[in-house]
Specification:
Bound molecules: (3R)-3-hydroxy-3-methyl-5-(phosphonooxy)pentanoic acid
Number of helices: 9
Helix content: 25-40%
Largest sheet: 7 strands, mixed
Shape: globular
Strand content: 15-25%
Mean pLDDT: 95
Structural class: alpha+beta
């Protein structure tokens, strides 16, 4: 059996994070500059059933049989076995590497799951369709927080911009004109589960207030979709600012994020907002040829641990 490699991109949520957990739409796009990679190779010298995982980025070197049953990789591997009706695996080595920062809102968990599920299924002779890959990765996402919307596994699996509503048929988005983003990392690791859980408690106490904010976000997302599909990305800046204001009212922003957002706007970005779970992790700024370098410099000067420049464009 030849070694099989699969990769999956990082992602950013452009509009609608958190409100998407409550049934509102969101827009997300892949980030090709960072990727997770899984390589599965036969290990003929070991006995059948022994799958060894080497994931140096997260310090994991372990046999599958030794992983806790709730470990994300155990869930992904068992998902593939159940999908294919297998009780045992051939002896193999799985190596997982990723350049996607962890717990930073860039979809690293989903990308690792998708790469692993794809590579393992293909190694076993049964490549899975995107729909099943995404569904299996969704089972792993549930581990990170109990109520994932499914947006991360979806955008990472389909590898194209998406308009996403939880539980509805996926709609891919085709930007009529490409647009550029600067992604700035606060360097603060912030598990999505915490922000999602805190917001849920606030919503439980005062549903009317938070439902109204989610409705505002839904309108922003619709306007953003129109701007993207009609080739007027210059409208997205003001919409990002409006979405950020809603996220601040949800309590999922942070002083570090707001410092980067303010510095990007001051340096010429057309708009900026946090992206993903918030509290830390990454922010995004809408830039163009004249502002990109100044915005990237301002982000670094204001504490960004790294800046990724990416373009959102039509999938090929
Ligand atoms: O995984 P993150 O940090 O990009 O956040 C996912 C987006 C949320 O809306 C906050 C949660 C979800 O499940 O959609």
């Amino acid at each position: 059996m030849p070694a099989i490699t699969a990769t999956a991109p990082g992602k950013v949520i452009l509009f609608g994070e958190h409100a998407v957990v409550y049934g509102r739409p969101a827009i997300a796009a892949p980030v090709q500059q960072v990727r997770a990679r899984a390589v599965v190779a036969a290990a003929p010298l070991r006995s059948a059933g022994e799958l060894f995982i080497d994931a140096p980025d997260i310090g994991l070197h372990s046999f599958f049989s030794e992983l806790a049953s709730v470990h994300p990789m155990a869930i992904a591997i068992r998902g593939v076995m159940d999908e294919l009706g297998l009780e045992r695996l051939p002896a193999c080595d799985v190596r997982i590497t990723s350049t996607i920062p962890l717990a930073a809102g860039l979809g690293s968990g989903a990308a690792i799951s998708v790469a692993l599920i794809r590579a393992l299924a293909q190694f076993l002779g049964h490549p899975l369709p995107d729909e099943r890959v995404s569904a299996l990765a969704f089972e792993v996402e549930k581990l990170y927080h109990g109520t994932p919307s499914g947006i991360d596994n979806t955008v990472v699996t389909y590898n194209c911009p998406v308009y996403f509503v939880k539980g509805q048929v996926l709609e891919t988005l085709q930007p009529l004109a490409p647009f550029d983003l600067a992604i700035g990392d606060t360097g603060i690791k912030s598990p999505t589960a915490l922000a999602v859980g805190d917001l849920r408690r606030l919503w439980q106490v005062d549903p009317a207030t938070y439902e109204a904010i989610f409705d505002e976000v839904a309108e922003i997302v619709q306007a953003a979709r129109q701007a993207i599909e009609s080739g007027r990305p210059e409208h997205l800046g003001a919409l990002m600012d409006a979405n950020q204001a809603c996220l601040e009212r949800m309590g999922v922003s942070s002083p570090d994020l707001e410092r980067l957002i303010a510095s990007a706007r001051l340096a010429g970005a057309a708009g900026a907002k946090l992206s993903g779970g918030g509290r830390g992790g990454n922010m995004i700024a809408l830039v163009d040829a004249t502002s990109t370098q100044a915005v990237a410099k301002a982000l670094v000067e204001n504490g960004a641990q790294r800046v990724i420049l990416t373009t959102v464009r039509k999938s090929v």
